[in-house]
Structure to design on (228 residues):
């Protein structure tokens, strides 16, 4: 069974631009969660989607948004990029709703904002 | 609200020595507790999970962790370190209702010396 895939793996943007990251969950998984990983703040929860509905949202500004499609694939968007948005963005999928379920992580998208 | 404290951002052990990575948690609801491992340039992989079924949890690659409610701890151990265990380890907590997001500790980097 294929794992969680994230595209692109690496991305370089400049301040003020916007970016869209994509995540394809493991087949049959209906929950997708997104995390931001930085050296200073560590791993922080962004949001969770289940059956196309946002279940939970972390403490991030409105510039960070996401959505989930009917095939469970998910995208996250960051608008008006800031230098501090440079991070590794991880996507995780699980069978059921809620991050207390076992999550399977993708390799991440490394975003660099110049 | 949940929080996690991992004592020691970097732990170094000799090959064959005991591995002990410390994790203390705070949770206002019965917790689910996790240990994840991250190898360079990869996503996170679940090592083990506590769900209140048993206080001693056995995971993959010879790791285990013991839930101690009185000490609010969930330390990770392995009797004998291998070179391949060198990685970053994250402790995480979630409420068992599934309505609270997963909260990670800052991580502990494990180095194994030959």
């Amino acid at each position: 069974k294929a794992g969680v895939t994230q595209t692109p793996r690496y991305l370089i943007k400049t301040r003020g631009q916007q970016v869209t990251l994509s995540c394809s969950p493991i087949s049959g998984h209906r929950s997708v969660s997104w995390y931001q990983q930085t050296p200073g703040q560590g791993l922080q929860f962004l949001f969770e989607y289940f059956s196309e509905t946002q279940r939970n949202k972390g403490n991030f500004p409105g510039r960070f948004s996401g959505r989930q499609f009917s095939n469970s694939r998910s995208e996250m968007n960051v608008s008006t990029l800031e230098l501090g948005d440079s991070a590794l963005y991880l996507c995780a999928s699980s069978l059921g709703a809620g991050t207390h379920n076992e999550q399977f992580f993708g390799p991440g998208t490394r975003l660099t904002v110049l | 609200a949940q929080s996690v404290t991992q004592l020691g951002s970097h732990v170094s052990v000799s090959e064959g020595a005991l591995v002990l990575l410390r994790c203390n948690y705070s949770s206002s609801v019965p917790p689910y507790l996790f240990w994840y491992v991250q190898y360079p340039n990869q996503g996170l992989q679940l090592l083990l999970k506590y769900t209140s079924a048993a206080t001693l949890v056995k995971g993959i690659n010879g790791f285990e962790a013991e839930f101690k409610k009185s000490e609010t701890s969930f330390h990770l151990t392995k009797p004998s370190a291998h070179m391949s265990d060198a990685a970053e380890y994250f402790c995480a907590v979630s409420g068992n209702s599934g309505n609270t997001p997963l909260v990670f500790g800052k991580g502990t980097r494990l180095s194994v010396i030959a």
In short: Chain A touches chain B at residues 4, 33, 35, 42-45, 48, 55-56, 58, 90, 92, 96-108 (CB under 8 Å).
